[in-house]
């Protein structure tokens, strides 16, 4: 059996679902394939910061309202070099570059639930859960995608949103470069004595950044933040074995007292850290987006927001000329608009991570002066902040 669609989206994670919603809301026929069950894992305690441009994309797609009640504004990004003597602290306030917050921190479960609900409500979106991508044949006029169940789907564009080990990328013959850091990120939720005040705090010492990202208070008034703690993999394995009291004490020490004493509320989940960049983001009738094109350490809220920027360009190009979807000019325009930005962000995050890892030497020496320079020169500060938001 062969069916027709405008775009086959491979991958049902946040980026794939966002693509289905953003494109489907504009009347573009989308078929989404994913081998998973299409449910919300309630044990996922991670959060994601959605910056203003990403929020605008989700709002136009009709998905933002479903997650807005779980969103905490991010009005200040506080950078701390705790290893400097004395420590260096600088606040980057959203008021310098925008009338509202930089963005909002939202629980992953809330993001997924809102995207699933919106995608299911769109007549233009065909969700094929428990259906994996097997292979594809790309021709000048269209592509044929074959599912792991043997179904054939004729489409104008194959959009790979299927992660850093993307099967679509392999099928298209596109390579990838990967950098590993022997680092692990621990992600967990903490309660703390002081209110966060809508401030996201990134503390640099050695091994990687320790970030406290605001979350909504609990009904009893308990202040909460999500912790993303990057450090050497061996050290993190030891921390994973700590009880809550020991981990709370260690986290409080590493936070440089940013929000007062911390108390662990959820057990940490460990994620290995690496950078992956596709050598190209297009091939015949094929585009790569999100982690199929770029995967980076969780620094500066760049991961999901870079993915949403990919989707925004794909949508805007489709709206400019619907007949061009998947054609060579469409794909060339996508690569021209997105690939240089992706490369720059991958290199920038890699440098920031290596600087944060450094305990001594030139990179560590430059960390404090670098934070001061970025903040204390107003034109540079505003330029860097706009770039970080994806608005420059």
What structural category arises from helix and sheet content? alpha+beta
Quaternary class: single chain
How would you describe the shape? globular
Q: Overall pLDDT, averaged?
A: 89
End-to-end Cα distance, whole Å, is 46 Å
Count of alpha/pi helices: 11
Task: Give unreliable regions as ranges.
Answer: 360-367
Helix content: 25-40%
Query: Into which percentage range does the β-strand content fall?
Result: 25-35%
Radius of gyration: 21 Å
Largest sheet: 9 strands, mixed
SS elements, strand count = 20
Any overview of this molecule?
- The structure is a single chain.
- The chain is an alpha+beta fold and 392 residues long.
- Residues 360-367 have low confidence and may be disordered.
- Helix 1 (14-24) packs parallel to helix 4 (108-121).
- The chain is built from 11 helices and 20 strands.
- The chain starts with a strand and ends with a helix.
- The strands form 3 sheets. Strands 5, 6, 12, 13, 14, 15, 16, 17 and 20 form a 9-stranded mixed beta sheet that branches.
- The longest helix has 30 residues, at 328-357.
